[in-house]
Amino acid sequence: MIDKTSKKPLKRRDFIRKSLHAVAGLTIGGLAGILFSKSSSEEMVWQLDPNICIQCEKCSVNCVLPHSAVKCVHSYSVCGYCDLCSGYLQPGTKVRDTGAESQLCPSGALKRTYVEDPYFEYTIDEKLCVGCGKCVKGCNSFGNGSLYLQTRHDRCLNCNQCSIARRCPSQAWNRVPASRSYILKGDEKKKFLKS
Amino acid sequence: MLSFKQKKKRLLTIAVIAVSVAGILYFGYKAIRDNSARSQGNPFEYDIEDFKKSGAALVHYTEVGQIHIELRFVSGVSVGPDDRIYVSGDDSLLIFNGDGILHSTISMVGPAYCLFVDKNHDLYLGMDDHVEVYDRRGAKKSSWESLGEEAIITSIAVSENNVFVADAGNHIVWKLDKSGNRLKRIGEKDEARDIPGFIIPSPFFDVALDPDGFLWVANTGRHSLENYTKDGDFRTSWGEFSMEIEGFSGCCNPSHFAILEDGSFVTSEKGLARVKVYNRIGELVSVVALPDQFIEGTVGLDLAVDSSQRIYVLDPRQKLVRIFEKKQL
């Protein structure tokens, strides 16, 4: 008599096939899991919001690096290319020249080049810029705000607790996704967001 | 064994020494702290505080009233021939009577950045790149064609037969007829005609007509007011750069101006938010308001004048129309 309740013995071929199915399933599931976890937890980096920044000069002295990772950047599409640039010249200056006594930048990092009467182009020498934001304050006070501060990510160590952010009086520092690591202005913003 | 007297003397000595030590420690600490506080002052700080006080002795105007504007964004002010006050902002135009009571509201599609009310009570509104005309009841009479992709209309002045439109995007003043047909481009750089060209670094570019019918334009990048005939011939100019009260500060000022009935000028600035009056040859005669009367960062102080020569200053930061009157000296 045949016992109907008894199971068929598992053959070696079936065992291998089922094992392969299980391994394939686990692999696909694992990969999907890894991809999902990576997409949902993109690396975050520190950035300064120029719309909140009050140019208190603390960025220049509170970075853990010997030379702050915060630098002045320039939106050329916003700039008025003024001869009398309030970001370049000392307030109340009588002359509009490149003399050190006329310049606002304490380290001479902001350079100006004649374009045509009466326009000048302004560029920043990042090696010299200390991130004090003095030019930014001048530009914001009288001009269009084309000069502003940003953390340069080729220098920033992305500390777990940013020592500048901790001391920022206006709480202008935020964690932003590494793929959108700059908070830009003008046409530069449009290009950056398109890329 | 010490006597009571000796014990008392010793305790007194210890107490005097303790008080002295505590005093030395306290005053020493205070001196060090004061010194360190002094040394924290930043001699390189961006400082324009002294310039904010410049001209205090010349304040000949006093604020006599304020109109609160219930809008999120306010952009322009004008006073009509009947002294009604017109304020543009958001998607509407608010009309107040002379006492500052809201009379009516006109709804529009999009905000008007500038406006002018002519002698016939017609409203000319600068809508970004084109002009729209409304009648006094708020009915749209016409919408003129765009002045181009680059056009940014910042000011309008209207004469008997012509409309002058300041276009900050193209750096020119358009002369149009009252149907919106383009007649002339005024102010383009032309060395043969001694026209210096408008330098407009930011979207502040004002125009007005003086009592003699000549056109005045704020060439903000040159810190001057320039005078043109209605055909666009350059006549004269005045104005100089200075952070002191006599001149115009920053990169691009005066941001706005209006003309009084005697031909003198009311000007406003950004950066150092101040309102001043110059006579018709450009000499400073009075200060209306100094930076301490505005919130820091206030820009866009549009101006208007009524028939009593009261000055209306639009304060976009506080959403107010502020009314100034000359003091009785």
Automatic annotation (TrEMBL), chain B:
<feature type="transmembrane region" description="Helical">
    <location>
        <begin position="12"/>
        <end position="29"/>
    </location>
</feature>
<protein>
    <recommendedName>
        <fullName>SMP-30/Gluconolactonase/LRE-like region domain-containing protein</fullName>
    </recommendedName>
</protein>
<keyword id="KW-1133">Transmembrane helix</keyword>
<dbReference type="GO" id="GO:0043161">
    <property type="term" value="P:proteasome-mediated ubiquitin-dependent protein catabolic process"/>
</dbReference>
<dbReference type="InterPro" id="IPR011042">
    <property type="entry name" value="6-blade_b-propeller_TolB-like"/>
</dbReference>
<dbReference type="GO" id="GO:0000209">
    <property type="term" value="P:protein polyubiquitination"/>
</dbReference>
<keyword id="KW-0472">Membrane</keyword>
<dbReference type="GO" id="GO:0061630">
    <property type="term" value="F:ubiquitin protein ligase activity"/>
</dbReference>
<dbReference type="InterPro" id="IPR050952">
    <property type="entry name" value="TRIM-NHL_E3_ligases"/>
</dbReference>
<keyword id="KW-0812">Transmembrane</keyword>
